[in-house]
Amino acid sequence: MHNAGEMAAMPEPQFAALVSSLAAAPAGREQLTEMLSENHPLYDQRGRAAIVRMRGWILLALSHAGVSDADLLFVLEELDTGADAYLVAAAARALRSYPVPSPDFAPFVIRAIANIRYHNEHVSFDNYGEYAVSSAGTSPVRELLATLVWLGPSARGVLHELESLRAHPGGFSRKLLNDVDKAVKAIRASEQVNEADVDKCCALPSSVGSMFAWKDGFRRKSESIESIVFEDHEGAQITFKEFFQGHPSIVVFFYTRCDNPLKCSLTITKLGRIQKLLEERNVAGQIYTAAITYDPAFDSPKRLRFYGQNRGVNLDSRHRMLRTTDGFNALRKQFKLGVNFIESLVNRHRIEAYILDAEGRIAASFERLQWDESRVVDCAVEMLKEKFEKTKSESPVKSTTSPIRRSKASPMLGALASVGVAFFPKCPICWIAYLSMFGIAGLEQIPYSPWLQPLFLAVMLINLASVWFRGRSIGQMKAFYLVATGALLIMLSKMGNGESAVAILGIALTFIGSVLSALSAYKGAKEAPSSV
Amino acid sequence: MNKKSKNTKSAKSRKEPKRTAKRSVTQAMSIAASGRKSVEERVAAMIEMPLAVGETDSDFQTVMNVLADKDNPVEVRLAALQTLQAASFSVASVESWRDDYITTLRSVAEDPDPELRQRVLGILAREKDGFTQKKLLEGLENPEKALVPPEKALQLLSYDVHAEAYPVAREIVENPPNTAAKVEALRLLAADADAAPVFEKILRDKEEAPNVRQMSAAALNAINPDKLQEHAREILLDNSEQEEVQATCLTALTQFGDEKAVSGDKALLRRVSRLSKKPSEQIKQSADQFLSKYADEGEE
User: Fold this and answer.
1) Are B164 and A50 in contact (CB < 8 Å)?
2) What is the C-alpha to C-alpha distance for residues A144 and A372, in angstroms, rounded to an integer?
3) Sequence-distant (≥ 6) Cβ neighbours of residue B136 within 8 angstroms
4) Cα separation, B124 vs B104, whole angstroms
5) How far is CA B138 from CA A34, B114, B154, in A?
6) Which of A226, A527, B55, B150 has the largest count of CB atoms under 10 Å?
7) How close does chain A come to B230, measured CA to CA in Å?
8) Is B103 touching A (CB cutoff 8 A)?
9) Measured on CA atoms in the order A92, A97, A102, A104, is the torsion positive or negative?
């Protein structure tokens, strides 16, 4: 067992021997999988070419030992976003060692063909670190086509795409056309097999999920990084706590010097699309977005701004491109970022996007495979709902902090005030009459208080105003008309002979209008998050 | 002449140049590949056909064989390399033979001829080729294995900011085999943002060669432009500074300076005004450009 320092300083020949020994021992398999993580100490301070050799060798070792469920995500990741011929070829070969072909693999394989065919080159798998100097070896496209043959009927979902590439001039090298035809033939065999037999075995195992979510009680607190100071695309400084707390956020990581177009550049472009989806769902003001650079020393505010703007990202106080001014390592630890460095420069990283809850804790992450923008937005909207639910449940007594509770309580108070105005006794004799009635109920000790009448009147008018405001904000004025009519009738009854029938009608209209107003507001508040 | 015969003739005349071109490519190919022809004839034939090479796989293969065959005169092999390089930019179907092209180049990377070797390594380095980076690093660590001089190796490695050349570049900055190698090592280190203190130190060291300090200024501008502005101001105000370095500082401030801060800096403007009267043409020109940008704004 080697410690982190030994791993980082390990010479490549020793590494190759270690990989071979781990692959040979069943107990070593887990370690091999761990060694595929970008943040493994093995990759610290190595150049990219060395990392390609090392990861490629691990994938080849796995291809001999057989890829397990735990390895599959790394293999598919390389096919999904890989830009290096050696790694893509090794991943294609490794996939063929998985026990069962699955139709879910086919899109990864065809995408890898489309990505790598303009960078196709010969690769040699014979010895560690060997580069092809003749055409005797294999190539990524050849390996990918062999993987399609292995998938056979399971790849029928991509047959059309493969045939289109075959027909397109320059789609495939002429030397590879025989391999393409073999793949097409193998896939076409699906017409002769029972479709049910193909489908029943084949779904990606759960370990391949590239999205992870943590329930409220299981999220890591953000206290250790709250004081980290960021500089944004305008050069303004803001702490983690200031920017990420009080609302959910979508966070992606990237760096401007990344030369894999399927990683950082695409991630930032997708962030721009996420912002548009947030706007379409009217939550752009409630869910913040941030792109944080892995390369804070190089990515100046100006570089961040241009990089974001050139990829369609909207930048303002709620949507920022950020770099840490200090504390990147704490951030790296908190997010467990899949990244490693040579000097200050990134040498390898995965794709990663995070959803933070309103307390700045990681609630979900999307890793390695290309993520779907709608799914990320859905997840962030869930966090927004969670925030509403929490606000509601945390403040049952303090009615002033709960908009829903307040909207229900105030009309009730207004309606009661209307009753008070309508039935308030005009003189001490009326009061005695009321008291004789209260006496039956044992309430004869209540003193006559003429000041209560203007108070009831004021509350009734406040209720009227509140119903008007609420009606205007939700675009429904029916309740206001009812309450206004009710108030008018009550006032008329007080100015006249105190017609109790008019007063009762006024009270009834006020009551109905107030309840209707409260219910409309409640319904509006309840539907707001789910409609997004 | 009836219409039909006219059409036939025009169709014929459209076809003829194509056939001529094809024939000439075939002839050129045959001359270029023939060991019995003179070197001059073969080079001329090779240079004649660059854009036509991509028409068939066999054409590419023929030219690649000429390049890889060590028995061919180096002039012919260099011409073959030039032909392939031109075709790799212009031919739409380059991906058909890219894999063979890369392996052919790798097979020539250790050729005894230094010019051919260097040019091939240059093409591969621009492709960020792992094989080439490995060979260049080996050469820097062990000069006996070096395929190119250290300054060239560093220059080629700097094409890929992710190459593993930083430790060796730092070593060369500390103990340079020559000034050119030190300049190239600094250029390479300019990709490492943590190297800013190294550049600051060299920039302010009057004992360093002017071109080394100029390189440091350029690197610092890429990593930390604000820091360069601070140093540039101090260097310009220093009467004992090297003129070449002052000229670089003037250019840096003219191109990237903070307009408000610079145009409000009376001491700096006065100093540059004096520099503009110096006999050195280089510094005079840089100072004039500086003043035309900032002096007017300062007066406003």
Assistant:
1) yes
2) 24
3) B121, B125, B147, B148, B153, B156, B157, B165
4) 11
5) 30, 17, 12
6) B150
7) 17
8) yes
9) negative
Please answer yes or no on whether A120 and B99 come within 8 Å at the CB atom: yes
Q: Quote the CA–CA distance of A92 and A81 in Å, as a whole number.
A: 13
| Residue B193 forms contact with A (CB below 8 Å) | yes
What would the DSSP string read from start to end of chain B? --HHHHHHHHHHHHHHHHHHHHHHHHHHHHHHH-TTS-HHHHHHHHHH-GGGGGG-HHHHHHHHHHHH-TTS-HHHHHHHHHHHHHHHHH-TTGGGTHHHHHHHHHHHTT-S-HHHHHHHHHHHHHTT-HHHHHHHHHHHH-GGG-SS-HHHHHHHHTT-TTSS-HHHHHHHHHS-SSHHHHHHHHHHHTT-GGGHHHHHHHHT-TTS-HHHHHHHHHHHHHH-HHHHHHHHHHHHH-TTS-HHHHHHHHHHHHHHS-HHHHHT-HHHHHHHHHHTTSS-HHHHHHHHHHHHHHHHHHH-
Contact status of B130 with chain A (Cβ, < 8 Å): yes
Q: Would you call A350 helix, strand, or coil by DSSP?
A: coil
- Asked if A343 and B164 come within 8 Å (Cβ–Cβ), the reply is no
Q: Any CB–CB contact under 8 A between A263 and chain B?
A: no
CB contact under 8 A, B130 and A131: yes
Interface test with B, best of A131, A142, A258 (most B CBs within 10 A): A131
Q: What are the tokens at B21?
A: 């071109």
Cβ–Cβ contact A295 with B under 8 A: yes
Q: Looking at chain B from residue 238 to 277, which residues have their Cβ under 8 Å from any Cβ of chain A?
A: none
A interface mutation test: which of B107, B121, B164, B258 has the most A CBs within 10 A?
B164
Return the residue of A nearest to B189 by Cα.
Answer: A343
Does A236 contact chain B (CB < 8 Å)? no
- The verdict on a CB contact (< 8 Å) between A48 and B162 is yes
Q: Which of B99, B131, B161 sits opposite A135 (nearest CB)?
A: B99
One pLDDT digit (tens) per residue for chain A, 532 residues:
677 788 888 999 999 999 999 998 888 888 999 999 999 999 999 999 999 999 999 999 999 999 999 899 999 999 999 999 999 999 999 999 999 999 999 999 999 999 998 889 999 999 999 999 988 889 999 999 999 999 999 999 999 999 999 998 778 888 899 999 999 999 998 565 555 444 444 456 666 667 788 888 888 888 899 999 999 999 999 999 999 999 999 999 999 999 999 999 999 999 999 999 999 999 999 999 999 999 999 999 999 999 999 999 999 999 999 999 989 999 999 999 999 999 889 999 999 999 999 999 999 999 888 888 999 999 999 999 888 887 777 665 443 433 333 444 445 555 565 556 555 555 555 555 555 554 444 444 555 566 677 777 787 888 888 887 777 655 567 888 888 888 888 888 777 666 678 888 888 888 888 888 777 665 544 443 332 2
| B84 to chain A, closest Cα gap in Å | 16
Query: Judged by CB atoms within 8 Å, which residues 115-154 of A form the interface with B?
Result: 117-122, 129, 131-135, 139
CB spacing of B103 vs A344 below 8 angstroms: no
Which value does ipTM take for this structure?
A: 0.80
> What does each C-alpha distance from A355 to A229, A249, B162 come to in angstroms?
20, 6, 30
Facing residue for B98 by CB, picked from A48, A121, A257: A121
Q: 């409260």: which residue's tokens? A: A518
Rounded to 10 degrees, the C-alpha dihedral B190/B193/B198/B199 comes to 50
